[in-house]
Specification:
Layout: E1 4-7, E2 10-13, H1 14-36, H2 41-66, H3 68-73, H4 88-105, H5 110-135, E3 149-151, E4 154-156, H6 159-177, H7 186-202, E5 211-212, E6 216-217, H8 218-240
Antiparallel strand pairs: 1-2, 3-4, 5-6
Helix pairs in contact: 1-2, 1-5, 2-4, 5-6, 5-7, 6-7, 7-8
Length: about 270
């Protein structure tokens, strides 16, 4: 755990630095994927930039509205950089809306654009796991297993390492699947489904989960929702990409023998 890196008189917050490096790496991966999928890399980078510019301030403003009494006493605290003072869900929704508007204006095709973003999403999951490892957030429940770690006064599951390994595996799958996707949009849905499955599994080892409805973990409920949506879209998009049975299939060795009206039949061989 290394929350702050002291460089002379400068104190650098390691979790924030990790996320910034993750954003840089995500932009690089997205641009490479865009070139492979025939998209405009500049337009895709602009889409990510718009999402960040809209999402981060939006998440801070929503958090400030939710905790207005604290910021009323110290208005300058609104400009302090801390990842804890964000409303992540609301910020993500604002980012998605802004990215959708930008993508529509630049006429980026939806499904190939999502596929190009898939490795970037997986890399950001890796960066988030490293940020948790540096800060000590997302800590595990107490355990007596041999690989336990001592954190916050108890021996706990190293959930940050579990999260990191799962995110690295998803990143590897995303890079491999991008080379041979079953249909447009498949890679993005696969990445989101795998991240949802990882959240469902790893949340059981967390010691700081928000629990509702007599034992349900909020993150697991969101994981189930995301997984269900991804599976439903996979089925719908895969059926939509299948060729129609009535349409001729090129390269199948069959010829269309239908003659246009008024045409003479070919001479017999």
């Amino acid at each position: 755990m290394l929350p702050v890196l002291q460089l002379g008189p400068l104190a650098v917050p390691v979790p924030a630095l990790t996320l910034l490096l993750g954003v840089w790496g995500a932009l690089w991966l997205a641009e490479r994927a865009a070139g492979r999928l025939g998209l405009n890399p500049e337009a895709l980078s602009g889409l990510i930039g718009v999402a960040l510019i809209a999402g981060l301030p939006g998440a801070r403003l929503v958090f400030a509205v939710q905790h207005w009494s604290a910021y009323a006493a110290d208005p300058l605290g609104l400009f302090s950089f801390t990842s804890a003072a964000l409303a992540p869900l609301e910020g993500a929704l604002i980012a998605v809306v802004a990215a959708a508007v930008y993508g529509a204006r630049r006429r980026l095709p939806l499904r190939p654009t999502l596929d190009a973003l898939a490795p970037a999403v997986a890399l950001m999951a890796v960066a988030l796991a490293l940020a948790h490892l540096a800060s000590g957030d997302a800590f595990g429940a107490p355990t007596g297993l041999p690989w336990r770690v001592f954190l916050w006064g108890e021996y706990r599951h190293p959930t940050q390492i579990y999260e990191l390994l799962a995110a690295l595996a998803v990143l590897a799958v995303a890079c491999l699947a991008l080379r041979r996707a079953a249909f447009p949009g498949f890679v993005f849905l696969l990445v989101m489904a795998l991240l949802a499955v990882a959240r469902l599994a790893l949340e059981a080892f967390r010691g700081d989960s928000l629990v509702v409805l007599g034992g349900w973990r909020v993150a697991q409920l969101w994981g189930l929702f995301v997984l269900a949506v991804c599976l439903a879209l996979m089925r719908r998009w895969s059926l939509g990409s299948l060729p129609s049975a009535s349409s001729p299939s090129p390269g199948n060795g069959l010829m269309d023998t239908t003659l246009p009206p008024g045409a003479d039949p070919p001479p017999p061989l």
